[in-house]
Amino acid sequence: MSGLKQELGLVQGVGLLSTSLLGTGVFAVPALAAQIADSGSLWAWPVLIILVFPIAIAFAALGRHFPNAGGAAHFVSLAFGPHMARVTGWLFLSVIPVGLPAALQIASGFWQAAFGLEHSGLLLVQLGTLLAILFLGMRSAGSSANVQVVIAGLIVAMVVAIWWKGGVTPGSIQWPALSTLSASPMFSALAVMFWCFVGLEAFAHLAAEFRNPERDFPRALLIGMLVAGGVYWSCTAAVLAFHSYGGEMAASASFPSIVVQLFGQHALWVACIIGYLACFASLNIYTQSFARLVWSQTYEQKPKAWVAQLSRSRSPLNALSLVLLCCLISSLAADYFSLELDDLIVYANGIFVFIYLLCMLSGCRLLKGSSRVMSFIGTVLCVLLLVMIGWKTLYAVVMFALLWLVLPRRKQTSEASAG
C-alpha cells in the first residue's frame, strides 16, 4: 500500500514509542508497584522488560517484514485471512468508546490539580486536547514525532531533576536481596505494570511511514521500549526514596508531591503540565494509529471514499477527523452517564491483550527462525495474562465474537511470508 509519507527516522521513532509507553503510567504506576511490592518493585521492572522482550521482538519482526498502516490487522490478514483481519481491525477500534475517554479524563485531571478547574472547564480541556490532536494530524507523522520527542525529553528531564535535587544516586538505592522477595506481591505488581507496555500494537501502524522500515522500525521499537523501562525504573526508585506511595495518597499524586517537596508549591503546575503532555503524547499516537487503521481498511476496499482520501501532507486527516468525532461523542456519553475511570480502563485493557495475542499467533505463522520462537513465547505470555485478568476480558471476548459473526466475509488475498 502506498500513499503515506515516509519520513520517520530512528530518533523520531524512539520518541513516538517511548512517549506512547510512558503516557499516563509514568506518574501512577511506579507508586502502585511500590505500594504492592515495596522495594521488590526495583526487581520487578527488569523482570517485566525480560517478559515483554519476546513480544517486542515479534512486533519488530512483523513491522520490519510487513510494514503497513494497517498494523495488527495487516499482520493478521497475512496469517489468517481478510475476515480475521477485519475482525481484528474493528476489535482495535472498539477501544475508542472506552479507552480514549479514560485517557482524556486522566489528562484533564492534571489541569484540575494545577488550576482547580470545575466540571465545565475539564470538558473544555478535553475538547481542546482533541483539537490539538487534529491540528497535528493536518501535518505528516513526522510533525507528531518531533513534538513527542520534545515531550519525552521533558519527562526524562523531570526525572533527572528529581534525582539530582533529592540526592538520589545509583549507589544510594538499596536493592532487596532476592531471597527476601515474595512471589505473590511480585506477580501482582507485574500484572499492574504490564499496562505500561501497552502501545506496541499502536506503534506498528506507523511502520509504513519510516524512511527505512527494515532497519529503523525494529531499532526504534526496542530502543523506545528500553528507554521507557529505564524511566519507569528511575521513577520507582525516586518514589521509594521519598516514600511517596501508599496510605491515602492517590497514585497519580505521587510524583507531583515529590516535586512540591523538592522545589516548592510553585513547581506543582510544572509537574502537572508535564503530566498532561505525557497523557497528550499517548493520546496522540493512539488516535493517529486509529486513523491509519481506518484509512488502510477503507483504502483497500474503496480507495475513492472520503475516509480514504489523504490531505496535502499525505496524512489520513479525514479518517482522523472521524476517529476524533467518535472519541468526542464517547467522552460526552461517559460524562453524561458518570462512568467510572477504572471501569473504562479495565475494558480497554482486555482489548489490548487480545490483540497482542492475535499478533503473536500471526507471528507464529508468518515468521521464521528466532523471530518465530519469540512469537511462540509471546503467545504463551499473552494467554497467561488473559487468564490472570479473568472476567475483565469479557468485553474483548464479546466484541470479538460479535464482530466475527456480523462482519461480512471476503475472499483471501495471499502474500509471501518472511523469515
Description:
- This protein has helices at residues 10-22, 25-37, 41-65, 72-80, 82-93, 96-115, 119-137, 141-166, 183-193, 200-203, 213-241, 254-263, 268-301, 317-336, 341-366, 369-389, 394-406.
- Helix 15 (341-366) runs antiparallel to helix 16 (369-389).
- The longest helix is centred in the C-terminal third of the chain and has 34 residues, at 268-301.
- The two termini are 21 Å apart.
- It contains 17 helices and no strands.
- The protein is mostly helical and 419 residues long.
- It is found in: Cell membrane.
- It is a multi-pass membrane protein.
- InterPro entries: AA/rel_permease1 (IPR002293), APC_superfamily (IPR050367).
Question: What are the salient characteristics of this protein?
Answer:
73% helix; AA/rel_permease1; single chain; membrane; Amino acid/polyamine transporter I; globular; L-methionine/branched-chain amino acid transporter; 419 residues; transmembrane helix; mainly alpha
